[in-house]
Amino acid sequence: MAGQNATTPRWLNPVEMKAWRRYIIASRRLLEALDSDLEDHELSMADYEVLAQLSDAPERKMRMSELADVAMLSRSRLSHRIKVMEKAGWVKREACPDDKRGYFAVMTAKGWKAIVAAAPDHVESVRTRFLDHLSKEDQRVLSEIFERVTDSLKENPPTE
Amino acid sequence: MAGQNATTPRWLNPVEMKAWRRYIIASRRLLEALDSDLEDHELSMADYEVLAQLSDAPERKMRMSELADVAMLSRSRLSHRIKVMEKAGWVKREACPDDKRGYFAVMTAKGWKAIVAAAPDHVESVRTRFLDHLSKEDQRVLSEIFERVTDSLKENPPTE
DNA sequence: GAAAAGTAGTTGAAAGTTCAACGTTTTCCA
DNA sequence: TGGAAAACGTTGAACTTTCAACTACTTTTC
Question: Engineered SS bond to A67: which of A62, B2, B28, B70, CB 3.0-4.6 Å?
């Protein structure tokens, strides 16, 4: 992307700037707040996401790489994180019989208890800190905007 | 926030869920993409933000704590980061004459060159990856939504 | 005007994340 | 069928971020 802007840059006008900055700033603070709310359950957002995904999976287990994809973590990051979560007793690892390279992350009873305890509070956080400020129409507009953003990122992924 | 939900949790309905997840997923990918685009200039988003804020400040210098606030970094994080940026030659530190506890972060000529080189590409990234997918009306709606979200976070800050 | 309380900023250690390299197993295809 | 290439997941090292403690200075309070 470097050096592709020989022409005069199209700087943001005030309205664009406001939309962009408000979005980016609110999003950071929102994430912080959700993370902080989850601390009451000794969970980070990433941990929550991992457990939530596992709890939706058949038999509450999932291949490491699939879990990494749906939880949007790098494989390496997931691998390190699962090591910690395993120590905490929320998940364990299980060799995959079909593919000897592979492993499953399996949610334990303790992990299930943790997510069941955390989920209502987390959903309530998402509501009070975010969804409550959106009308039905806002929800629709937002869904569409971010669908377009995601689609465009897929078409034009960053080159790393 | 823990234990405040003795009542049945108000789970998200499908429309709410879709709005929430699309927003959160697109936002993560968007941030990743912007960060990745900036790598061409050897800058992280945090570094960019620090340099951008400095370049707008009078004399291109700012007190550490003010800089931490506007760039949304903890003081400790800024302190560590400035150490690295100083080594890279983009900023230097300067003792504050009025308050002997204080320091200024001061942008160097090299820092100025770095931000001037990166800004057009970065703005272009923000456009192509985000703003281009928003109509004027979308911009307005988004500004208002995230203003409400920010206001509510101010009224009800996380307790850490 | 001195002690207490608060503010500015840094530090080192602990925890988390990225990156590149690696061993193992599977897939591809000539 | 055999060997190259790709995929799975882990690892250790480097780097980043957080956390709590700390020094140094300033402001408040009585």
Answer: A62
